[in-house]
Amino acid sequence: MITKIKRLKNIGKFYDFSAQANALDWHKNTFVLAPNAYGKTTLVNVLRSLCDNNPKLIRARKTLGSTTEPEAIIVIDSANYVFNGTRWDQPYPAIQIFDAPFIHANILTHEIGHEHKKNIHKIIIGAEGVKLADELSNLKAKEKAKSQEVVNLAKQFTLGGFITLSFDAFLALHPNEEAAVGPRIQQLEQDIKLKQSEGAVQGLDFPRTIEAPAFDSTGMKATVAKKLTATHETAEKRMLEHIDWNFKDKAHAKQFIRLGLDHAQANCPFCGQDLKNATDLLKAYREFFDDAFRTYQQSIVQQLAAVSGWNIDNDLTALVSAHNLNLATLRQWEPYLGTIALPDVVTAVDSCRSRLVELKGKIQSELEKKQKDPNTDADQSQFDALTTELAWLKTAVEGYNAAVSSFIEKAKQYIANLPKSDITSLQGALAKEKEIKKWFEPGWKRLATDYPATKKEADALINQKNAKQKELETYGKAIFDTYQKRINELLVTLGTDFIITGLAGKTDARANESYTDFGFLILKQTVPLATRQDDVPCFKNTLSEGDKSTLAFAFFIAMLEKTPELEKQIVVLDDPLSSLDETQREATARLLLALSPAVKQITVFTHKRDFLYMLCDKIPENQVLQIRSDKKSGSRFEFFNLEEERKSDHARIIEDMERYIDEDFGPTTDSMQGNIRKLFEVVLKTKYYSTLAVDIKANRGLSSLLTTLFNAGLLDTTLKPRLFDLCSVANGPHHGEIVDATPRRLSRDELISLIREALDLVQKV
User: Fold this and answer.
1) Average pLDDT of 240-268?
2) Which is it for the CA torsion 711, 715, 721, 727, positive or negative?
3) Is 509 contained in some domain?
4) Last residue of a domain, one of 416, 451, 485
5) How far is CA 98 from the centre of its chain?
6) How far apart, in whole angstroms, are the C-alpha atoms of residue 79 and residue 88?
7) What are phi and psi of 537, to 5 degrees?
8) Residue 103: is its pLDDT beyond 90?
9) HEC states along 637-655?
């Protein structure tokens, strides 16, 4: 509880105030009276600065022209709270303040905007709701930041040039892929290369097999091995066999041949040769018919011609040329199959070329000798040597041809194994594999690791946020229903002709901010807080300034009632009712009376004496202070003697009555008639306060007060008829109070007589 404003220096009009006297101590219910501009709002700002620990609120009100820093010492619960010019030594947050800043921040006097809706939301949901809202706000901020991290990580992938690999596929890659992706890339690159060369490969020739020179020397060897005698014997044998076959009388065969010759002239009828000598003719026929000999001779000639016509050197050169063509063909295949060697057939040819040429010459020589002399002996070893040499060359060629055949098979297999996919598909697959390979680069590998972890954190925060949102909504639904009911009860108590409707918490999806929206029910018509049309009823153009202040006060009271540890709160109100009528001020006083036991302290700053008196009547256990001010000393606190002030008021009423009797004084008869009632009420309430406390709190009229006092035996019963008669005539409205009966309007002469009666009776009561 605030027990003393101990010091205020260089703050507004408090030039150098220090409180020493105990008379300036504050009580549980403290009321401060001061005209406007004397320092009420300045002191409230000092208390707000202490509550919010906001030094700027004091520094902004530094006394104009002062060269020293502001100072403040406020005693709360016997502890000094010191402001040293720059900051408080400690804050005191348990202060609830209702003032113009509260109204402007939450209701405003013109219109309710989004910021006001947010502030109202905080008021309604209370400390627990604010805690939930703050937790939700923190979760939203964390979730937003974490989700942005997720977006940024995904954006890195988007900007990374990945085309064929989706982000999900990228994240799904396994570290084991690192060893496999390289070979796949190599294979695809090779396949692309193969596919690109497919047309060229399809048009390439294959190498050809070569043929070794061949020469049948075996038959020549057999021919040269024969002699002429053997040939004749063979021919004769064949001839006899011929005769045996063709003549019926084989004994006369030779005679037939001779007889035939006898019929011939000098020349042979068959060949035209000279037949001088039959023996020679027979010999000739013998030789002619000797087919074996003739065949032998022909064979020699043919074989000699074959040997002569065999150009072994050309055959060997052709072999080398064919080999060279094969080598040229192989070079065309090398880009696809690599270097492939064939056996060195050239060396083989060169090694046997001279020997074969030599053997050919020797064989030809042997045949020529045999042709001249069939009975000569031939050198048969040359034929064997030629056969051996050719067999060796044939073996070399066969090995060569085997290598050619192997290459041809390999080339055909290569063609058969060419990729079946088109080049575009292969290039796409290669691009994907290269993007997979990027996964294993340090930066991308870190992204692939960070993204799932960050996404998991973001998802967890989203779940937490949603859970907290649901918790706040559940909390809010219950509190908004009860809050609207309580605010409307307060509005009715405060005498407004409107209530609120549709009070509900909402969330701005774009700003992720919670706010409260509601409308008003006026004459059974719903009026919104705001509208886009100027000619449509809304808060701005329908509620008066007093209505708006009353609405703000209702929100404030409802907020207080739901404040945790309300018994520890100091409640400060700065001229809360300056624009309210008397009925609303009285209702406010009753609300403060009900609130007082529930809080630690209530302090009301006001410039209205009648409201101060009303507060003192409603809340008798109080301390009343006033702020006095002058140009030289500035503002200061002083004790306010309520009874003396009220007595002075009584004296003024009596003086007015006396003047009204003696002079043509200006007040109306109605006003003077009301003063009669007021005079007796003030006197009786002041003199018999303890006895009339219940009636005073119940705001009972003068007749009730008189009844209580007569029943208590405190008034002379002989005065009773005169007092009640006076009461019945003087009874009437006064400052909005409830009356006992409708007064009778009096003339001036009647009123003067009544005033004299009242002045006489007031001395006796």
Assistant:
1) 61
2) negative
3) no
4) 416
5) 43
6) 13
7) -60, 140
8) no
9) EEECCHHHHHHHHHHHHHH
In a domain, 14, yes or no: yes
Alpha-carbon span 15 to 8, nearest angstrom: 7
618 and 715 in a single domain? The answer is: no
Average pLDDT over residues 236-257: 63
Q: What is the structure's pLDDT at 737? A: 41
Neighbours of 475 (CB within 10 A): 18
Overall domain count for the chain: 3
* Distance (Å, whole) CA 342 – CA 752: 154
Rounded (10°) angle between helices 642-662 and 748-764: 140
Per-residue pLDDT at 228 = 61
- Statement to judge: residues 613 and 694 lie in one domain: no
Is 80 exceeded by the pLDDT of residue 480? no
CA-atom Rg of the chain in angstroms: 69
Helices 702-711, 669-687: inter-axial angle, 10-degree rounding:
30
Label residue 11 by pLDDT band (50, 70, 90): very high
Taking alpha carbons only, the member of 755, 578, 586 closest to residue 676 is 755
Same domain for 618 and 713, yes or no, is no
pTM (2 d.p.): 0.49
Chain-centroid distance of CA 360 in Å reads 95
Secondary structure of residue 418 in the 3-state scheme: coil
Residue 347 belongs to a domain: yes
Distance set, CA 343 to CA 315, 346, 348, 479 (Å): 18, 9, 9, 101
546 pLDDT more than 60: yes
CA distances to 235, 279, 284, 286, 299 from 268, rounded to whole Å, are: 22, 13, 11, 15, 28
Regarding whether 714 and 629 lie in a shared domain, the answer is: no
> Tokens 């005079």 label which residue?
679
pLDDT attached to residue 736: 36
- The set of residues, in sequence order, having a beta carbon less than 8 Å from that of 291 and lying 6+ positions away, is 235, 238
Q: What is the pLDDT of residue 115?
A: 67
pLDDT band at 77 (very low <50, low <70, confident <90, very high): very high
Task: For residue range 412-429, list pLDDT tens digits in order.
Answer: 888 887 766 677 787 778
Rounded to whole angstroms, the Cα distance separating 609 from 637 reads 17
Residue 571 pairs in a beta bridge with 96, 602
Domain boundary residue among 607, 624, 640? Answer: 640
Cα separation, 100 vs 30, in Å, equals 20
Do 222 and 341 lie in a common domain?
yes
Residue 711 domain boundaries: 642-764
Where does residue 638 rank: exposed (0-12), middle (13-18), buried (19+ CB within 10 A)? middle
| CATH number where 31 lies | 3.40.50.300
**Together in a domain, 239 and 351:** yes
Count of other CB atoms within 10 angstroms of residue 22: 9
Q: Identify which of 455, 482, 461, 562 has the alpha carbon closest to the alpha carbon of residue 135.
A: 461
Dist. CA 93–CA 459, nearest whole Å: 37
Fill in the amino acid letter for 506: K
Which candidate, 286, 243, 239, 278, places its Cα nearest to that of 258? 278
The answer to whether position 553 is within a domain reads no
Alpha helices of 289-380 — where are they, by DSSP H? Answer: 291-309, 312-337, 345-372
Per-residue model confidence as pLDDT tens digits over 191-237: 777 667 676 777 889 999 999 998 888 888 888 888 766 555 555 56
Please indicate, yes or no, whether residues 748 and 661 belong to a single structural domain of this protein: yes
Q: Is 662 helix (H, G, I), strand (E, B) or coil?
A: helix
Q: CA-to-CA distance for 635 and 55, rounded, in angstroms?
A: 21
Q: Kindly report the backbone phi and psi dihedral angles of residue 591, in degrees, each rounded to the nearest multiple of 5, phi listed first.
A: -65, -40
Q: Are residues 222 and 312 in the same domain?
A: yes
